[in-house]
Design goal:
Elements lengths: L2 H7 L1 H11 L4 H11 L5 H14 L2 E2 L3 E3 L4 E3 L4 E3 L3 E3 L4 E3 L4 E3 L4 E2 L4 E3 L1 E3 L13 E3 L2 E3 L3 E3 L4 E3 L2 E3 L3 E3 L4 E2 L7 E4 L4 E5 L1
Parallel strand pairs: 1-4, 2-5, 3-6, 4-7, 5-8, 6-9, 7-12, 8-13, 9-14, 12-15, 13-16, 14-17, 16-18
Antiparallel strand pairs: 10-11, 18-19
Helix pairs in contact: 2-4, 3-4
Length: about 190
């Protein structure tokens, strides 16, 4: 049975569990997240979903978050339906991250919604201000393994980001991009 079928079958129970988990304070849920990172089974998948459902701005149905996914500034994260975020991904939503429906993000991918600035030469770059920038991933997108999606980027619907790509600018609909920085490789 697929994850989507399981979600549909147990949706009523999941909704009840969402309400129960929602009664716990955010700090407690973040602590539980760390413990659940060790759980690879269906229980761990369910609990990570319930926690993200309660901590994020929006989280749709049938969202799979694997082990060892690091989520920062979750309160600025929006996730649609049928989304999978695989092992070892890093998402920092300080500038806002919106993920549409039917999106797959392969392992070891990073989405970073801010940049360091270097305007003030009197202090080290790491202490300069950061600039925030939203990342928008529209519906029906596949992001290959080891990609880097940077701030102020929109990936339009039905696009593929090839493994290892570094995306620094918008990606049009119906194409494959790859490389560093990512460029259009082919149209779909």
């Amino acid at each position: 049975m697929t994850g989507r079928e399981l979600f549909r079958k147990y949706k009523f129970i999941i909704r009840i569990l969402e309400k129960i988990v929602g009664m716990f304070p955010s700090k407690f849920l973040r602590g539980i997240w760390t413990i659940l990172d060790l759980s690879s089974g269906k229980f761990g998948i369910l609990m990570r979903y319930l926690i993200i459902k309660n901590l994020s701005q929006k989280c749709g149905d049938n969202v799979y978050i694997a082990q060892n996914v690091e989520l920062k500034n979750v309160h600025m994260l929006k996730i649609g339906d049928n989304v999978s975020i695989h092992r070892g991904c890093y998402l920092d939503a300080v500038g806002g991250i919106e993920i549409g429906n039917n999106v797959s993000i392969a392992h070891q991918t990073s989405l970073v919604s801010f940049n360091h600035t270097w305007e003030n030469p009197d202090i080290p770059i790491k202490y300069n201000e950061i600039s925030k920038g939203k990342i928008i991933i529209e519906d029906d997108v596949w992001i290959g393994c080891g990609c880097r999606i940077l701030a102020n980027v929109t990936i339009k619907s039905r696009s593929i980001i090839a493994a290892g790509a570094v995306v620094t600018s918008d990606v049009p609909s119906k194409c494959i991009v790859g490389g560093v920085p990512a460029k259009i490789v082919r149209e779909l």
